[in-house]
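tokens incoming
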């Protein structure tokens, strides 16, 4: 069942969404060779609390940390650990904050130092894929239109779209209906309506689309160990289009 949010609900989601976005702005200067993902986790955790938020990932279905950090061939849900970032890595930092019971979900892939050609290409394609998906969103379009636009663009660039994980409705619940898949056919899927709030978060692999879940039951990697990049925004459907809720205010 897809919830339709009122204007007041969408207003109420803004602090959580902006907090998540501001956290990504804040973390950028820390993303450099030598920092561990545990340190990134600690900085995000402390910043979140200091600014009146709760880190949604912590203890969510048993997730052990406050942020997801997905490095290189990790597709999503990477668990922060003792490993240090190295020059040339790419890292997705996925921040979800709860304020007043509302969730905001926002992620970005960052370069550690100077990226190699392929790392840069897959990251820029993922960044643009998210924007292309957002550009489709308006009342009357379908979820399939979003997936189609993203898949066409990614495959035209000879990369692939992950199938097993998708965008999602969001509000008082972290993951709610609808599922927003990043592949599909024009005109198929649910019709988008004013007041829907959901994420788009395409995971783009430099190699094949297949993924594998590691034994920790969280970390998702590309089966072929190719690089993977992702960007995510939380969006509200408005009468004439879309509002990106996860824009930074700092
Ligand atoms: N933030 C992720 C998403 O975009 C979900 C992470 S679940 C966690 O939907 F438990 F790993 F945090
Ligand atoms: Co999400
Ligand atoms: Co997220």
């Amino acid at each position: 069942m897809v919830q339709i949010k009122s204007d007041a609900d969408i207003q109420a989601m803004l602090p959580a969404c902006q907090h998540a976005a501001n956290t990504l702005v804040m973390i950028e200067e820390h993303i450099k060779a030598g920092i561990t993902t545990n340190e990134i986790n600690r900085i995000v955790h402390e910043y979140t609390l200091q600014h009146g938020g709760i880190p949604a990932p912590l203890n969510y279905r048993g997730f052990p940390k406050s942020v997801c950090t997905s490095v290189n061939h990790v597709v999503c849900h990477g668990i922060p650990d003792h490993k240090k970032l190295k020059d040339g890595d790419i890292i997705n930092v996925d921040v979800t904050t709860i304020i007043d019971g509302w969730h905001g979900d926002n992620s970005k892939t960052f370069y550690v130092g100077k990226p190699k050609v392929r790392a840069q290409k897959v990251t820029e394609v993922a960044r643009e894929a998210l924007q292309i998906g957002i550009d489709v969103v308006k009342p009357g379009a379908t979820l399939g239109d979003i997936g189609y636009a993203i898949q066409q663009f990614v495959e035209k660039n000879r990369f692939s779209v992950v199938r097993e994980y998708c965008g999602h409705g969001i509000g008082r619940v972290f993951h709610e209906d609808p599922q927003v898949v990043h592949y599909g056919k024009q005109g198929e899927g649910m019709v988008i309506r004013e007041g829907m709030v959901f994420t788009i978060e395409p995971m783009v692999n430099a190699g094949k689309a297949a993924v594998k879940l590691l034994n920790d039951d969280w970390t998702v990697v590309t089966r072929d160990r190719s690089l993977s990049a992702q960007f995510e925004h939380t969006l509200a459907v408005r009468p004439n289009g879309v509002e990106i809720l996860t824009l930074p205010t700092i």
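note: The radius of gyration is 17 Å.
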